[in-house]
Request: fold
Amino acid sequence: MNTLSDSVGTAIQLIVSADPMLVAIVLRSLAVSACACLLACTLGMLAGAWLAVARFRGRGIVLTLLNTSLALPSVVVGLVVYLLLSHSGPLGFLGWLFSFQAMVLAQAVLVSPVVTALVRQTVEDADRHHGEQLRSLRARTLVRGLLLVWDERFTLLTIVITAFGRAISEVGAVMVVGGNIEGFTRVMTTAIALETSKGDLPLALALGLLLLLVVLLLNILAAIVRRWRERRDAGLAGLFGQAGAVP
Reply:
């Protein structure tokens, strides 16, 4: 018997039969990543919008640190959050270590720099085109940034989708702060690592296939949003072009 083909067949059976353990792990993964993405996008969009339009001493250093944080390994982020949440850490009183909240916090810390950097670049580009008009209306810095965020909402939706994909595919940070406890903090990526090490390939393959499906659906959604924006922009350009041609 072919071990690979047997494992794939069993993995497909687990997915089709909606195995309770499989479903619980997938739902927990989606919940953790959705909460982390919501927190990261809320903070990241505010920070990115402000950095895009604000001018202050040391801004270059802040941007350099922001870009550097994009390359932080997830296990390092997990270690930092672990130290913060440990009993001797400043947030130890929360009692969040090895919990759902700890995994949400770790993923949010990991994803926030990505959202902040992408939003800052998007809003800064928009500010070059529309910023002068907003400044003439004496809009405050943060207000100007938020107005530009709304104007670029379709692009920012793609950033949100990217952030969710980054969060749900992460393994190092959630394993460090979550502990990979069955029934409590085990998510798709940590379960894949554990089941593979145990030799339970069918469950690992089933989780891997579902994780790939989630990432595929996210990419399809991002492509739809981009196509939608391109059609909208093309329609607006044609509308204004026709208006300009009227004598």
